[in-house]
Amino acid sequence: MRIASFNINGIKARLPRLLEWLEETRPAVACLQEIKCQDESFPAEEFEKIGYRAAWHGQKGFNGVAILVDGEDPLEVVHGLPGDPLDEQARFIEADVRGVRVVNLYLPNGNPQPGPKFDYKLAWMERLRIRLCELLERERPTVVVGDFNVIPEDRDVWSVSAMANDALMQPESRAAYARILGDGWTDALATLNPRGGVWTFWDYQAGAWQRDHGFRIDHLLLSPETADRMVSAGVDKEYRGREKASDHAPVWVGIRD
Q1: Which residues carry the site feature described as Important for catalytic activity (predicted)?
Q2: What is the average per-residue pLDDT within 179-189?
Q3: Which of 31, 92, 148, 254 could form a disulfide with 81 if both were Cys (CB 3.0 to 4.6 A apart)?
Q4: Binding-site annotation, residues for Mg(2+)
């Protein structure tokens, strides 16, 4: 069972590339971030044409997440990150798929820092940790995927100095991510690539893709029940190089059924 994550950076602008990736790689579950559309304009029918059913949480022009499942409906469980009833940003969705709880998130960027956006990021990460601890306590197979907007370690970025002042790499962001892992989650890509050097994002500016100036911010976290079933994980890097591509590449993890 392959569970994938893809920050599509605008589902309307990237729909041809997204459909192309789905048909060529055929993940069982595809979690999307930054769909950037309202609920009523989500192109569910386009995915149904190729056999995928969807659950989504949209927002006009910003954010937005969706879970696509090959051949069946995802059973949506949670719509929005719990913990702050005033937070209306569409960044979080959970669904049950074939006995696995799938959590899809788009974590706040936090720039510029310091400032209110960075404070929101850290508060969001604390709420996320609380929710994920609740899921761990249930001891059921769970996979948490998405754009975390955190570069966990120096080995996860092409240049430490170039990103030193970015919210993605601040000590507070890294510490919050490390606390989540410390609760019992396995970072699939880091586990299988202990030397680092694996990127999931390349900026559109300054020839970052052509120069391979990237970093890793798209993560796949496994609960103990799914970490024992992991057989592979990777990055579909070539899709970043295609025409009108997202600035992220898809990432995925394979677990035994």
Answers
A1: 218
A2: 98
A3: 92
A4: 7, 34, 147, 149, 247-248
